[in-house]
Input
Amino acid sequence: MSKFFYKPIVGIDISADFSVAAILAPDGEVYRKPFKIMHNRNGFDYLVDQIKKAEKEHMKTAIFMESTGVYHLTLFHFLKDTFEVCILNPLITNCNKNVDIRKVKNDKKDALTIAKIGKFQDVKYSSNFDIEIYTLKSLCRDYYKFTDSKSTFKKKLSTDLRVIFPTYNTVFSNITCKTSIAILKTYSSPEAILNADRDALIGLISTNSRKGLVHSEKIYNKLYAAAEEAVYIGLKSPSLFVKIINTITIIESLETQIKNLLREIHLLMHSNRISAEFKKNIQLIYSIPGVGELTAITIMSEIGNIKGFIKPKHLVAYFGIDPSVNQSGKFNSNKNVMSKRGTRIGRRALYAVALASIRKNRSGEPINKVLLNFYKENMKGKSKKVGLVAIMHKLINYIFSVLKNQKEYELRDPKIHAKMYLNKQSNFAA
Output
């Protein structure tokens, strides 16, 4: 039974410009039929007046609404200091919106459905909202979004160059390095490189690469040979090179935005707007080998408040790496995959940590000896993806442990750890 069973419940169906609210009386009957509120000052004040009327006649209310991207944030922030506001996962409400035989879907019905879910069902909800943590999470998500866009345009640049300048990639392994971009912006075609002043071009390479004259002359010779071959086998159209210049401009713009985001993330992290407890939690995650500073910030901003997770498996489900289940009668599928219903960015950051955890550094030392040994010993005969998911599960347990115990990660052999745990249990029993 829901703890709000004896209370009046407000259900709100959120839209972009307006919402529809419905109020249930303590006995479950409709106290106030669904009504529309605009997302402005008058609309919010009208909603507050209707809620206070219900509270005056009955008792304190509980307000339920869906998490709908960013549309619910202003209303939630407006109400949370005055009323008890609960945010529901859309997966919960979607499962309950089609319970009737008739197929009816509108905002009024959805508002009543949300209210009934809050009143009659014991569902999980969230009531926490920290503006600064939300800002940090948004900045991190934008960073990954712009990084993905940059990768897309780098691939586009590589594709276009293979048409116009087929062997250019043999000169520069990274076609978006500073030297490569400077050459492509200055010389608009292979013919321009062939007709360029040798000393001027070598000077341009030397200025941008900063590796000396000998290295610059080698690059020039490779570039000249590639330009000669491009003139012979490449497509000759001045208009095609406009695509190259446009793509370079977009890449440079994205790099500027990424730098701005990283600067803002670090400024926010070093300001007083982020609590000391949250900063400490980031340092605890950062203590795990293979976790970088930005990755730790990303993972912690996605988690938010660790107090909302009672067990490690709850955190596993939140990151969407829990296995899906497909079973019916005597059939039980053995090809289950990750549910992927949790935080996508958090799962991506965790995947990067898993990859780093099974690698070795330049000196040949494992990044995380325990996880590397586990991967080698227990993942034989299994695909790499299965092994990485197992490592991600291990990492979730580490993250949960360091955050709950408020202690930095200790690299410890599993056998020693098991022995310490048994000794602790025996001492506790005694």
Residues 360 and 366 are 4 Å apart (CA to CA).
